[in-house]
């Protein structure tokens, strides 16, 4: 097995300066699958900050990935504003009921206090543990569920989609309240040493049209990005599903990096916006990472690098979305080992050679 010769923080700093590094960046997105790395139950993350932190730390130390992220699910902000949750013993939490059921209740909503509300204080405590132990080795992040997506979970997905057509003013009110909560949580995460990233799955063109994205999502995401940049932070965003219709909007929002879903053609994204935004992606998290063999993972990872290694603003290997909880550990190792096998700088002929051989067979 190949070993890293640099830690992720030094690698990122050297890449930013155009200096030589040991390998291409790679960051498998384990999400709640981090529980499997040190024998935890996912439900422990809802009550024990040290359990969450220890799983984040163990995941970094096990794989050497180029990022350490404190995150459990998409509903932490909406829960802190009153949404009801269901907490399985050993699976990802899910939304049970939105915070409100009618527009007349919008004025009853208040932005969160990240130090008091819901599970947010636990997440902040976990961030401190993570940063104190590994913050000088690896970029540490907190995923902020963006203002448009969180607005959906405040009133319910079907209701908000109807409101976009029948009562757009109500949607803007929800997004404004949601944005203030995003900013408060992001600021608190920064105080713990984290760099906030944004998750905006409901901004996907698979969910809403580019027109509705520009009207309801973009203004609030742009304000969040501007705020984070005013705090001296680079900003990455992940949006699930199709996004080709909003590529230029994402550039205009001001993001520094874009993590794309596997349903989007990677080369199309590079050609469209790779000269202005770093691209990350997009190995299939289900059919390849979860269901495939280590060799499948290796081959698909190399294919992604072939498609995007020359992106002018940079490229990082990632899955197209968060990995299923039970993704085989050997497949995560296979992705990281492939990054080490590819190395740096990228040699296109070497990529062709690596594709022509089977490492695991």
From TrEMBL:
Transferase as UniProt keyword: yes
Pfam families, sorted: URO-D (PF01208)
Keyword list, A-Z: Methyltransferase, Transferase
Enzyme kind, highest EC tier: transferase
GO molecular function, one term: uroporphyrinogen decarboxylase activity
Membrane-crossing segments per the record: none
Coiled-coil boundaries: none
A biological-process GO annotation: porphyrin-containing compound biosynthetic process
The enzyme's E.C. designation: 2.1.1.246
Domain Uroporphyrinogen decarboxylase (URO-D) as annotated: residue spans: 9-341
Domain of life assignment: Bacteria
Protein's name in the database: Methylcobamide:CoM methyltransferase MtaA
Organism: Peptoclostridium litorale DSM 5388
Origin organism lineage: Bacteria, Bacillati, Bacillota, Clostridia, Peptostreptococcales
